[in-house]
Backbone:
């Protein structure tokens, strides 16, 4: 792959909280690149700084070392063409206003005609199957539906890169597979590049074009693994393929090895309160 | 019991219990033959002679409550947002908050160069602002970080984040502070009216005592009680309309 086809480049990125003896090296040195319209899943043992990494990529956290380059430009603050979906939908959606206004939030400061703005909101909610629920409050919807609102909000923003931080970790298994298929569909519909952080190995194999396996903290890339399962993916047929089982087992072993290699004294950084 | 039945009993209790109590007061006062105790009926029919003192009190109350709320939010917002502002201001807030308002009342006349509305409203708003101020600081500090980070990732400016996220998120706590502020405002204005004033319900109370004419006093007390009740009921109505989402959200979300 030539350098120009890469949308997103993470170059020797590191993040250390605090300094001196109390310093916590959340992310050691992480490098990988993501091509246009690629779906890359980032997996790693729990507490390995995945969320810190993603916040650095999103421009919400300043890396201590290295840099993030988006289409040739170094990311120093949240870029216009990037959107973020967090795990905790109930905390990222505004409970005091309608689903419509929640999706509208990132569009208010964009220079768009009112009709264009409304069209984006309606299209995004339509493509996640929530057109009928525009005037509901988010908390009137189920967990899976709320996460779809968060996805619609990100889509309406028209990003070229979508960052997702364990977005389906707090929904039930059935809803989860529906949402996974939704992600694959909107990737094609909206032509977005997706970086998807998850701790679920099945999910990473099912969704990805490529998996980036991380080591425990201080985090580095352990392996980059192409996933050459055929598209369109199917929750039953794809998961029955022997390649699926092999990939799944391979990633599982890598992470398990990481977990057992983890020194007992390594502090587990609390990446949730970075800002 | 049917829902409608229990609803009817609730309303009946709300009306019958006060009626019974007032009736008892009426009977007791009629048989006491004391000039000090007016019957509730005589206090009620005296309202027309007292009501011209209600308006000045209401005006001062409204001004103190409204300006106190505004001041509380306007000062609480920056203090909630900025660690350094909070660090600099909190000792002063705690100092003034812990002084009983009555201790400052005589001084307020000197400080505000006034014995008129300016002093009474100024005194009222100063102390009425504290419940709103403290609740605003607390609410702004407690805003969900994920919500702010999401908005930041969408490049929503700080100004817009304050307008669209911080203030609406803080509103339930601000309104709770306002309710305390409203009750406090009434106390403060009445106390202020004891001091060098020529009208208002507080003036009626003190003047009545000083001139040994008790009917206006009981009339004013009844009026103040009804006023407080009505204000609280109005406030709850406002709260229900402005914060309907909050009840639903709290019921739907495990806290």
Residues:
């Amino acid at each position: 792959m030539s350098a120009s086809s890469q949308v997103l480049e993470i170059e020797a990125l590191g993040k250390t909280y605090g300094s001196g003896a109390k310093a916590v090296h959340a992310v050691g040195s992480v490098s990988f690149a993501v091509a246009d319209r690629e779906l890359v899943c980032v997996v790693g043992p729990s507490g390995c700084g995945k969320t810190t990494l993603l916040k650095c990529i999103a421009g919400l956290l300043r890396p201590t070392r290295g840099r993030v380059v988006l289409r040739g430009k170094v990311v120093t603050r949240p870029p216009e063409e990037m959107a973020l979906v967090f795990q905790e939908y109930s905390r990222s959606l505004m409970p005091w206003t309608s689903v419509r206004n929640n999706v509208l939030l990132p569009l208010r400061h964009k220079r768009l005609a009112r009709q264009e703005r409304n069209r984006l909101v309606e299209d995004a909610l339509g493509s996640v199957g929530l057109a009928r629920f525009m005037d509901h409050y988010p908390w009137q919807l189920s967990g899976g539906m709320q996460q779809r609102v968060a996805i619609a909000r990100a889509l309406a923003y028209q990003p070229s890169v979508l960052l997702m931080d364990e977005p389906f970790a707090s929904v039930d298994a059935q809803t989860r597979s529906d949402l996974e298929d939704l992600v694959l569909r909107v990737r094609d519909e909206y032509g977005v590049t997706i970086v998807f952080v998850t701790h679920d190995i099945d999910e990473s194999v099912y969704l990805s074009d490529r998996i980036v396996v991380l080591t425990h903290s201080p985090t580095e890339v352990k392996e980059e693994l192409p996933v050459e399962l055929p598209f369109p993916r199917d929750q039953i047929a794809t998961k029955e393929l022997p390649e699926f089982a092999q990939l799944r087992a391979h990633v599982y072993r890598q992470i398990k090895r990481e977990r057992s290699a983890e020194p007992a004294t390594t502090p587990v950084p609390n990446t949730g309160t970075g800002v | 019991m049917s829902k409608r039945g229990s609803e009817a009993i609730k309303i009946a209790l709300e009306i019958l219990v006060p009626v019974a109590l007032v009736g008892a007061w009426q009977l007791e006062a009629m048989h006491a033959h004391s000039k000090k105790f007016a019957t509730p009926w005589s206090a009620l029919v005296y309202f027309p002679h007292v009501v011209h003192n209600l308006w000045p009190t209401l005006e001062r109350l409204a001004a103190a409550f409204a300006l106190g709320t505004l001041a509380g939010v306007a000062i609480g917002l920056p203090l909630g947002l900025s660690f350094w502002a909070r660090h600099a201001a909190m000792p002063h807030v705690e100092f003034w908050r812990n002084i009983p308002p009555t201790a400052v009342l005589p001084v307020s006349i000197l400080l505000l160069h006034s014995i008129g509305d300016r002093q009474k409203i100024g005194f009222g708003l100063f102390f009425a602002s504290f419940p709103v101020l403290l609740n605003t600081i607390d609410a702004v500090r407690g805003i969900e970080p994920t919500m702010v980070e999401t908005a930041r990732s969408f490049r929503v400016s700080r100004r817009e984040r304050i307008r669209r996220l911080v203030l609406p998120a803080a509103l339930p706590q601000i309104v709770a502070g306002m309710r305390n502020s409203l009750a406090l405002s009434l106390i403060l204005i009445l106390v202020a009216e004891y001091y060098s004033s020529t009208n208002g319900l507080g003036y009626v109370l003190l003047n009545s005592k000083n001139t040994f004419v008790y009917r206006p006093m009981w009339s004013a007390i009844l009026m103040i009680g009804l006023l407080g009740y009505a204000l609280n009921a109005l406030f709850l109505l406002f709260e229900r309309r402005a914060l309907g989402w909050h009840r639903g959200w709290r019921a739907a979300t495990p806290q």
Chain B touches chain A at residues 144-157, 160, 164-165, 168-169, 171, 245-246, 248-249, 252-253 (CB under 8 Å). Chain B has a mean pLDDT of 91. Chain B has eleven helices and no strands.
